[in-house]
Specification:
This protein is mostly helical. Helices cover about 80% and strands about 0% of the residues. The chain has one domain.
């Protein structure tokens, strides 16, 4: 309650004090919502603008389609520019007090907790993928075709190297800085659980398609929790990186060695189930971890959620992404 001490000292009426605290907390949440919503809109807008510019330049577009190296370099530039620019601007325009709240790439509070958290987090990634596949199969059986969430699997050594960089490594650093740093950290004063869930929602929305939404939300919530519990975004980077590198390796093997891919998948699943489950138990029973902190404010969970979601930029970003998601769903039932 440190930030509210002056309010309690300067005003004598409890009702007036309570009203002031509610207003302050809502303003804080709305400010963070506007920042995150603008980042989402900028991300989507820059993607659209750059894609339009590329298609409108025939010579470059033809080279982009025909040359693997050019294709991968353009994709890498698009991703870095569209993702890093909005969130870097958001960081630079933060209030000094908000920057002080950021705990970005510091060391984890406990190395054993960090190691077990990474393996437990990878287990959650596998589980989230399984749950997502069940939902997608259910929708397909109901006659719905869900598009999006795919990329061209690497088929050559050059493509594999670029995929490792653009899919396996870069997103782990950039997205953790953006989502578990710029979005989640300032919200922690409103409660760690709230911050974890809202940042997971923004993370899921950024993917812009139903086939990845549920997976991204589950994984985003798990990473957010482990980052909070270990005190370091490096744990989130490691989980994110491990999951993405595994996906790249599996996709590559499916293209060039399908038989080996099946063995690789079964081996990974078996190891992850055993090691991941053991690490999950160790993390919650033996390892020293940070407990989730409650909100220092006065708003209820529903009030905080409403204050965060219902701002013009956030609603605009959500509607844009809903339209993009629905556009990728078609009904093919009989």
């Amino acid at each position: 309650m440190d930030e509210h001490t002056n309010v309690w000292e300067n005003y004598g009426e409890p009702a007036q004090i309570y009203g002031i605290l509610r207003s302050e907390e809502k303003r804080s949440l709305k400010r963070q919502s506007i920042r995150a919503g603008l980042c989402l809109i900028a991300f989507l807008g820059l993607e659209y603008a750059l894609s339009t510019a590329l298609v409108s330049t025939p010579a470059l577009y033809e080279l982009y389609l025909q040359n693997d190296t050019v294709y991968e370099l353009v994709e890498m530039f698009f991703y870095l520019f569209c993702m890093l620019l909005p969130f870097t601007v958001a960081y630079l325009t933060m209030r000094p007090a908000e920057k002080d709240e950021l705990t970005l790439f510091g060391k984890p509070t406990s190395k054993p907790a960090a190691v077990t958290a990474v393996m437990a987090g990878f287990l959650v990634c596998n589980a989230a993928n399984y749950v997502t596949n069940i939902v997608l199969v259910f929708m397909e059986n109901a006659g719905f075709s869900v598009g999006g969430g795919t990329y061209d699997a690497p088929q050559t050594g050059v493509q594999l190297v670029f995929s490792i960089l653009t899919v396996g490594l870069l997103p782990a650093f950039v997205e953790e800085f953006a989502l578990r740093g710029i979005v989640m950290q300032p919200m922690r004063k409103h409660g760690d659980l709230f911050a974890v869930l809202m940042s997971a929602l923004v993370f899921a929305l950024m993917h812009g398609n139903l086939s990845q939404f549920l997976f991204a939300f589950i994984v985003g919530a798990a990473i957010g929790y482990f980052v909070t519990a270990t005190g370091s975004i490096w744990v989130g980077v490691a989980i994110h990186m491990l999951n993405n590198l595994y996906s790249v390796a599996l996709d590559y093997l499916l293209e060039v060695r399908p038989t080996v891919a099946e063995k690789f998948y079964n081996l990974e699943l078996s190891i992850t189930l055993v090691v991941g489950a053991a690490c999950l138990v160790l993390f919650f029973t033996v390892c020293r971890r940070n407990k989730l902190q409650k909100s220092s404010g006065v708003l209820t969970g529903g009030e905080k959620t409403a204050a965060y979601i219902f701002t013009v930029p956030m609603v605009g970003a959500i509607l844009w992404l809903v339209v993009e998601t629905v556009r990728l769903i078609s009904f093919e039932g009989s």
